[in-house]
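Hi everyone, sorry if this is the wrong subforum. Our group has a chain we'd like a structural model of before ordering constructs, and none of us has done structure prediction before. Sequence below.
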Amino acid sequence: MVGVGTSTMPPALAAVQQHFGISPDVAGILLAVFTLPGLVLTPVLGYIADRIGRRVVVVSSLVIFAGAGAAALLAEHFGHLVVVRLVQGVGAASLGALNVALISDFFTGTERVRLLGFNHSVLSIGTALLPVVSGWLAALQWRLPFALPLVGILVAAAVLAWIPPVHHTSAPGEHGSSPSQPSTLPWRQLGLLLAISIVTYALLFGPFLNYVQERIRLLDPTAPKLYERIGVMVGLMSVATTIGALFVGRLAKRLSLAVLVQCACALYAAALVLFMLMPSYAFLVVPTIVFGLAQAINQPVVQSLVAALSPPERSGTILSLNRAAALVGQTAGPLIFGAVYRAGGVDAVFWVGAGLAVGCVVALRRFGGT
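Answer:
Right subforum, don't worry. Here is the predicted structure as tokens:
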């Protein structure tokens, strides 16, 4: 469901830019306001879910998400659309974290890594299709991609039908720490993982989701079916993520999870440099696939590391902190890279992004230990 609010955006943003005559950095506000509510609500909802149950919070969130999707059909001005996206962000705030928490409730160890990879692969199938669907819808009418959250009603019904309630009792966590003693948690490792989430999500929502479409436009300004071309490229990234995530469990048996995160950050850096070097739209396939493979490794491995460091009865709260960190990146990415774009153009966006990814590799090597 979170993918419905994010992966649909590149074609939708291009349509909004054309309809309202605004620049990419202004349109990027629609990405930022979607993630803004989660900065506050995600940890709060994670804490509540640990107390009253994950299912109640998930279903309530999906209903809000779907309602805001219906409201998008009535938007007349850019300001109206900003408000709609803000409410959609309220509904989506808990979903990314509690999805992982529910998996962690039922699985541990390498099986958890494998299933989080599989989960990420399944999610990526949706996000591979959504940009293409969004491109078709944007070509029909600019509001339609923003109404896709309406499918949240069906997902809420499925949650009620198939996911049983889960209740945890106070017990030692995976590493023998007592949940009543927060100081025993490995906050240094958790802090580093949260920082990695911030940076990598900023790269996804800044350079990739907001400025690859500008790169496509600059490479061939007169090409037909621009929205569809953007949607196809974003969809290709999700396909690469889908395939790559299926093999994360096997990789985790051969390499440590900390090494896998370093590899993912190196792939992010390589992809962002390649986006600047490719001479035509067709060649953008290469960095798009590399970026997708970085996503395939990074997200499930970081989630698994955070879950492994979290006592079960507090996993909703701590995984929500990781999700909140991702939302910081999602919110800050369009804003920071918007400033970079205004200062130095689209090439500067990709250079700065590559530098941040290299910085993540250095930080993991020096301060890792996860």
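For your construct planning: The two ends are 30 Å apart (CA to CA). The domain at 2-162+185-367 is CATH 1.20.1250.20 (Growth Hormone; Chain: A;).
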